[in-house]
């Protein structure tokens, strides 16, 4: 009898152990499923938020500069905070919202460079020009142009033609200069094959690995056109005094709506809110042609 | 002995003949053209892509530093020796120094000419209903903007510059450009038969003409009177307009033969070849292109709001 009871007790223990083991396994699998499902939700939310943020930025990039100037008034950074959208502002400015159904983006437009920043960074390929807006720059001050020649392999030799345009009374003026890189810089060595360098003025200053020259702002400043010869260049243009606007900074914050399928329950978390920032120059790439008196793209210019 | 004498005579005669040709070539080096305030640039890689004789010994030597020839085998001794690669520049006329002639060896340019079709598409400024399309440049008094017009209307409007005050009129009292884009549907040649000059008015005004056809500047446009150098530099150009053509015909821009000195404002921009046939003698350039910085300055402002050129730099930042 005792032996029988002992066997029954052992069986019960085994059953309890098996049930416990099963429950643990079940809980483990369930947790894994829940975690996986949540991850899918988060991934969905991430991609939807990213997608709508990019869609918002691209939609505003397609707008003309005139439209962006108008939108800048209402589409401010008060549309969103670190915790999410400001629904009052969003309701007041529907023109700043891009809605994709389950997600939406609030798009803010600011002047670029942003307030308090006096340096503008831009790149240009070889033999191309970039336009720098100088309207409202402080006359009498210098605009410092720091540049580094670049090609597909990294820093490389280049030269710069600078064309400073200003207005004196009713006359429009051009001051032009060719600049050679500071010889002490490592990338300022040998010009590319087929390019003969010289006849410019060697820069007097450096900023890190950048060669620098100053453009004196005289009269009423208009524009600065920079043309990179030999190779492309990266520029850092620093204003002293007033900073001329170079374009627009477009900030698009995307968020999955509350209750939306696939991530809606996560609304408010960082996973469902993504930000994309685009800096768009308002100055056109007019090409090299306009800096010269006579220009032909492919033909000859002949006096005969 | 007789043969040797004859041979010597022939060699001497040939030398004399060559010397005379050389002298004659130097003295009668015209026609030639030059620029002031801006260089000449050609995307053509040929060494002689820009040809203009340079009478450096001319009595009116004011132009002598204004042109550097890219194709010269033996450079003019008074010229800087960096004239290769299809680019020449004007220097300071009053004080020519090497640093004024700063550009060389540009070679093939990046980018391309402005997109003509894009210009045409953006030419949406409406011509007022009461405007006679034959008088776009005169009685219509169009405001600054970008207008599309047929070639026939452009040519008749240019011809009407020979009537009334013989000046073109642009409305408003601020600085501005009147951009006329030839309607791509019309074909032919733009014919400039009279001076193209703005009427004196409030604000700095200029005309930009954009076409995909050949531009002819007739022999009647220019001056026969020869003022002093200073007067010539300061007087208004005969054509105070910027001309752009995307034509590849030969020539795409032609200044007809004649003795009139032609002074024209630059930039003058062409996809194809330009032929300047004007001959004003040795001392004066047949064609004198004076760069006017107003055009690029105003085009930049115009494009900042209209995006005519369609390209501006964009930088993406993900946060």
What is the radius of gyration of chain B computed over CA atoms, rounded to a whole number of angstroms?
Answer: 23 Å
Order of helices and strands of chain B: HEEEEHEHEEEEHEEEEEEHE
Task: Please give the order of strands in the largest beta sheet of chain B.
Answer: 5-6-8-10-13
Q: What is the tally of beta strands of chain B?
A: 16
The domain count of chain B comes to 2
Q: Main β-sheet of chain B, in a few words?
A: 5 strands, parallel
Show unreliable segments of chain A. Answer: 261-267
Strand content of chain A: 35-45%
Helix content of chain A: 25-40%
Radius of gyration of chain A: 31 Å
Shape of chain B: globular
Protein architecture, described:
- The complex is a heterodimer of chains A (304) and B (319).
- In chain A, 25% of the residues lie in helices and 38% in strands.
- Chain A contains three helices and 19 strands.
- With 319 residues, chain B is an alpha/beta fold.
- Chain B has two domains: 29-108, no CATH class; 112-309, no CATH class.
- Chain B has five helices and 16 strands.
- Chains A and B meet through helix 2, strand 5, strand 6, strand 9 and strand 10 of A and strand 1, strand 2, strand 3, strand 13 and strand 14 of B.
Summarize the structure.
The complex is a heterodimer of chains A (304) and B (319). Chain A has 304 residues and is an alpha+beta fold.
Keywords:
heterodimer; A: 304 residues; alpha+beta; 2 domains; 6-stranded antiparallel sheet; 5-stranded mixed sheet; 38% strand; B: 319 residues; alpha/beta; 5-stranded parallel sheet
SSE diagram, text form:
The complex is a heterodimer of chains A (about 300) and B (about 325).
Chain A: H1 2-61, H2 65-74, E1 80-81, E2 84-85, H3 87-92, E3 97-99, E4 103-112, E5 119-124, E6 129-133, E7 142-151, E8 154-155, E9 159-168, E10 171-180, E11 201-202, E12 205-207, E13 210-216, E14 220-229, E15 232-239, E16 247-256, E17 273-281, E18 294-296, E19 301-303
Chain B: H1 2-27, E1 33-36, E2 40-42, E3 50-51, E4 87-88, H2 116-122, E5 145-149, H3 151-159, E6 176-182, E7 189-192, E8 205-211, E9 214-217, H4 229-234, E10 241-245, E11 253-258, E12 262-266, E13 268-270, E14 274-278, E15 287-291, H5 294-306, E16 314-318
Parallel strand pairs in B: 1-15, 5-6, 6-8, 7-9, 8-10, 9-11, 10-13, 11-14, 12-15
Antiparallel strand pairs in B: 2-4
